Amino acid sequence: MHNEQHFSATSSESNTQTALRFITCGSVDDGKSTLIGRLLVDTKAVLQDHLAGVQRSGETDLALLTDGLSAEREQGITIDVAYRYFNTEARKFIIGDAPGHEQYTRNMVTAASSADAAVVLVDAIKLDWANPDLQLLPQTRRHSLLVNLLRVPSVVFAINKLDAVADAAVAYKNIAGALAKFAQEAGITVTAMVPVSALKGWNVVTTENNDQPDWCGYTGPSLLSILEDLPVTPAETDVAFSFPVQWVEKFHDSGVTTQGRRVFWGRVATGSIVPGQTVKVFPSGQTAVVSQVLSATRQPQNKAAGHSAGIVLDREVDVSRGDWLLSAEGAPEGQRQLSTTIAWMDDEPLVAGRVYWALHGHRWVKAKVQRVVHRLNVNTLAEEEATELAPNAIGHVTLALQEPLVTLPFAQSRILGALVLVDTASHKTSGAVLVN
Could you say which DSSP state residue 104 is in? Predict the structure, then answer.
């Protein structure tokens, strides 16, 4: 039953041409750095002279490959999100290595918000593995719930250190059972579960290097094979067209009279755009017809969500950086009040009455905290009464905006449904906001 738990992504249906962005998360000392080191070494992404520099008493210390800051190496912990790049013949990968400590929840939120997949590492030796009713660590639950809250499309559980338990098959069966039960209760769709030994390299890059062919009673693919087959986050093409204007370029000496004299550059956020489409400018409300859609090399080309484009309209309309071009039909209306979920990152607590800058696309507006509705217990996501959000807390908050923003619920659009709050004095990013 646990061999290929819910393994849903198949090569035929998934877009595996694009680099896969995935994060590794789990508790402190679960072996995240070792796992990433193993992926880098076994896919030959690390040079020999680099390997020679991370020897400890004759053995390669894989964790040292990834703990990039000297402060991390001294403490033996990961304290920042580090991005690593490697590739196999099948695909390219970008790994976000997020810290496991509770006080770095914000780092994990940052890494997860743009990830296509999450590998949640579970340390077998920290659990009562011989007990079929074992309890998972709070950190495992918390990271899985956060990844689900941030709509990371694929979740893979990697059960690590099974080489260090007396009966690997029993441990894998019981831990996989506990994970499946938790995921079902929490409404988390699990893409795959895989038993691994990051230290020995079993089931990480290949399944051939184990002592036994069906170690732990598992006959499924290795972790890397699973990652090679995962789909990237699909572009939001099923939502009405929206386009945050990043840069306005003037055509000088343009003799063409059937179009405006400016190109609006940016990245299509949702939907798609073709010449002849009617768009409206937000916030002014003016409408115009698209006369050209240009690629980065200025070739006429239709563009869908996720791609950069230059848009020329059929007439002169007043558009500046931070404005949005929206589909004239079916686009969301501007909102002045938002019900949100906020992951709070500032050292000062979030309290009602404070005003921040909100950044949405390239548009800045002032946002006032109207009310802290609930704080979410990060270990269970249960709603608790609260009047403020402490650093690294997550909660439901009502925001009042000085000017409207065009948003959709985060569940519908990861792009239109996300904004950041920035402190007006220090200019530090204070909160990651998901629209409910």
Answer: G
